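URGENT: need a sanity check before tomorrow's submission.

F., can you look over the Type II secretion system F family protein record below? I want to be sure the sequence and structure line up before it goes out.
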Amino acid sequence: MLRGGVPPAAVFGPGLAVDGIGEQVAAGAPIAEAIAGAARPEWRFVAAAWSLAEETGAPLASALDRIAAALRARTAVQERQSVLLAGPRATVRLVLGLPLLVLGLGWLLGFDPTPVLLSPLGAVLLTAGGSLLAAGAVWARWLLRSAVGEDRVVGGAYDLLWIALGSGRRPDEAVRGVVCAVDRFEVRWVPFDDFLRDADIQVTLRRVERLGVAVRPALLEAARAERTRSLAELERSAERLGVRVLGPLGACVLPSFMVTGVVPVVISMLGGGAT
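Structure tokens as predicted:
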């Protein structure tokens, strides 16, 4: 729409009245503020980009192209993450259900463990097994959450800086502008650590200045490289998780399976249900 000559204020008209943005723009709110008012992380990211393009005079359509590419890359990472973690998640769910599965098999085979479970010994077994099972479930879920990592747009800082440099600003001025936009619109997908002196983005800028090459293409290449590294790290993390998840399963869930499922069935098989 912007490339076709539609004014920016008309982009969020009645046909694109998403998340209440069109209503705020129609009421006279600045476009970037209206976009950020949607209060969703992706809109705050777009608001920062829109604001930078307006302030610097950078082409707005090209700026939105960069943000769209960044958001598509984030979606690709999430989809890949979901695929890689599907195996460990399924393993955890399956093993957590083993105690109930064994009890069910005992009932089907005619060895009713109910008398054992209702006895004082059964209370001890259920307490011990339940505690182990709960500990294993908490441990395994913590491992799964740690493998997911922080929700962010990988390389998003490079994309915003690419936009800020679209009108010929000096790199240091552009960095300050990006930091201000991130702070103003509370873009939590772009952490402030990305702009510290020793951060990769600052190293890239110093290298570009030293070599005398074009800044914006170097930023795009750095963003692609960071996304590639992120995907590689995600795959390594998923592989490690497949091994690490054996810890709670072996230390907690399998002993719970033995205590809660196997022992009552074995006692009932031996005729000890009344003890």
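My own read: The chain is about 75% helix and 0% strand. The mean pLDDT is 84. If you see anything odd, call me.
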